[in-house]
Sequence to fold (267 residues):
Amino acid sequence: MGQVSGKVAIVTGGASGIGEACAETLAREGASVLITDIDDHLGKTVVARITKAGGKAHYLHHDVRDEGAWLGVIAEAETRFGRLDIMVANAGIGVAAPIETMTLADWQRQQAINLDGVFLSIKHAIPAMRRAGGGSIVLMSSIAGLRGSPGLAAYSATKGGVRLLSKSVALEHAHDNIRCNSVHPGIIATPIWGKIPTSAEGNRRNAAIDPVERSAAITPLVRVGEAQDIANGVLFLCTDAANYMTGQELVIDGGITAGGRPQARPQ
Fold:
């Protein structure tokens, strides 16, 4: 008996990285998972891996910015699997550039995916969760949503927005038994770091887009985070073990935001 047996989940951006780990973890623990993404090949590969392992999953091509498409995504979850209990709003991008040289187009594209897409995931999940008697909404923020980061000001703005959006949604829908929490990963080894573009007018040297190599040195636990580390936290927030948690921030960063640099270990 899995920790989320009988529940139905949607995971946006579920074709790779943290989203992939979340989808596979939820399925392994008994949930039926609808994976959405724009990378059809990788998305279908994740579904094939889940079903081969005995889990239940389906893939939909989905741009989270498209509100009309959201109606079909929610309908697919309810029609195919019968209900909706879990929404993991994970889809996001990073565009690195100093704020002075970032283009308005890059600012708006990042806002549209990272913030508008999360807003739409919540808006359209709530009626379905209300029909199911409640649910858990998990929004993927970042430690960049807790503190500033040079070269990632626009990204931080979206992730900080996600953080407070989560708290407001939690307060608005507590009476519906719908919980909403944010997850704040630190520097995690995922494919996103190879995909982060600099703004067309940006300066690559100042964008600080290659942190994975340096992350172990600044992380108190002295290792790079893995996608599974984040998926474990997401799973917890989706289980009954977290049924008294809402409006909270789950920081999974190896201790980076605890303050200061790691001390030398005794020999």
About this structure: Residues 8-256 form a domain with the Rossmann fold fold (CATH 3.40.50.720).
